[in-house]
Amino acid sequence: MQNKIVPYTNTDDEKLFALIEQGDERAFTQAYERYHKLLYVLAYRYLMSPDMAEDAVQHVFTRLWEFRSELRVGISLKNYLFTMTKNYVLNLIRNENSAIAKNYEMAQAASPYEDNLIENLEKKELMSSFYKAVDMLPAQKREICLMKVQEELTNQEIAERMNLSINTIKTHYSEALKLLRIHLSKMLIIVVFTTLMTVLSVHLIK
């Protein structure tokens, strides 16, 4: 009997790095897929060059793999990768590339925006997954869900618009949430999934 392949989509960073440290290539691939885009955005912000930003990301992940047994992530794999990316950029600046140095100075001047940039990117991806899941709902449940989330209508307002009882609206939305849990759990890591479902559930009582 073949061994079952364990997916790492829902694996937290601490466990993921422990697996990488042991030489698990699938764990490394998951880390790459999870953080490639975020690191690219970070590198591009300083380098203002798609090719150089991609080179930075490849350098960071290559180093992570080659020196996996010597590295210690500590608190957060995500923060560790961000630090490695910034250090790579700083090394480029030490090579006296004036254009890169100028870009770095401009980025540093707006450093408070950096966290928002990453946060907004994560939110964008989160909502993209949400709307993909909503599109999978039956027509009436999809319509109710969108009125709840996009228009922020109450059960009473939706009932009046659709000429249905409030209890019917509540039932449809509750069933929609159950279906969304199934769809979203396949798309998102567990922490993000739980957060989103908590937010959506608040609308059930309105």
TrEMBL record:
Domain RNA polymerase sigma factor 70 region 4 type: 130-180
Keyword set, alphabetical order: Membrane, Sigma factor, Transcription, Transcription regulation, Transmembrane, Transmembrane helix
InterPro entries for the chain: RNA_pol_sigma-70-like, RNA_pol_sigma-70_dom, RNA_pol_sigma70_bacteroid, RNA_pol_sigma70_r2, RNA_pol_sigma70_r4_t2, RNA_pol_sigma_r2, RNA_pol_sigma_r3/r4-like, WH-like_DNA-bd_sf
Highest taxon in the source lineage: Bacteria
Transmembrane segments: 187-205
Domain RNA polymerase sigma-70 region per the UniProt entry, residue ranges: 32-97
Gene3D superfamilies, alphabetized: 1.10.1740.10, Winged helix-like DNA-binding domain superfamily/Winged helix DNA-binding domain
Stretch forming the signal peptide: none
A GO molecular-function descriptor: DNA binding
UniProt entry tagged with the keyword Oxidoreductase: no
GO-annotated biological processes: DNA-templated transcription initiation
Family annotation (PANTHER family): RNA POLYMERASE ECF-TYPE SIGMA FACTO, RNA POLYMERASE SIGMA-70 FACTOR ECF SUBFAMILY
Family: Belongs to the sigma-70 factor family. ECF subfamily.
The name this protein goes by in its record: RNA polymerase sigma-70 factor, expansion family 1
